[in-house]
Amino acid sequence: MGRPRNRETVTGLLDRMTTRVWADGKTITYRYHTIDGKAINLGKDKMAACRQVLDIIGKREDTGTLAYVWSKYTDELKPAPRWKRLAEVSKKDYLQAWKQIEKSFGKMQIGHIDSPMVARYVHIERADSPKRANTEKALLSNLFGHGILLGVCTINATIGVQPHKIQSRPNAPDTKVLANFLGWLGKQTPQRQIIGMAAEYASLAGNRQIEFRALTWPQIDRAAGVIRTFRAKQRGANKDQIVEAIDIGPELSALLTRLEAVRPNIACPFVFPTQTGNRYTPEGFKTLWQRCIQAAMVEGLLTDANRFTFHDLRAFYATKHKQTLGALPDMHKNKETTARIYDRNKVVKRSSF
To answer: Hey, what CATH class is 61-166 in?
Structure first.
């Protein structure tokens, strides 16, 4: 005897699934009704809802695969706690990493993936992209950990697989090259000028992009001579609690004066606004920065030998801080990380007795 013909099944839903249309007449949510009448919310995605039902009744074909673990790890309604704690930029990074991992391991049973397979993937298949390979290995480790919780594997196959050794860039941007580049940007279009002043700010204050793209004028206390920002990359109990209080020196003060002069209007709260007065997205900022770099290379201001990344400006700040004040700034919870990644001094000074 076939399935009963009813309104739900003829629209592609499984047995015991129903739809609920919202008051706007457009939004639809899906539910699954258990034998005892309990309704389980399945969200708004029809395909995801069907997969959840197949999972509930034990008929999902991909159960136990790495793709199955990924879907449970990133589930819209019940994501893994570790996924839920990630910052949005980290989630986007992992989504990109998954697209690559899926090609090799997506359809495999996670319990059949062993350490040699992971090692080959990281060091042979992805040898040309070592930094991305390390990110993909980190995601694989998280998925194995979640697979153990789901009961579909027993070991984390990434354990014992060494990541690629990534060497920090050896040099900070040259002072004269940076000055010429920033001076050139100051004569470009208004938005390129904003990007130039953002670069200058990073070189003077040492903040990450994520920390200053959302910087607002109320965070700047000119009277007290301090800028207060939340430190990024803090997790657990410290998340959103570590405040960096940056003293406003003469150069930074002059920069803030120039930024105030180009402020669109008093209603715009952002220090580095877009053309529409909003804050830059990571993608929008990166795109405009790369266009500025490429244009500067066409003009001969930058070359392949002396060009730099935006993140190098953070190293420029740390290096100059040590040269001027004799010590590295407090930029990381782990001071060794600051020294290893950002200190690019070639001459180290010390006193004799």
So the answer is: mainly alpha
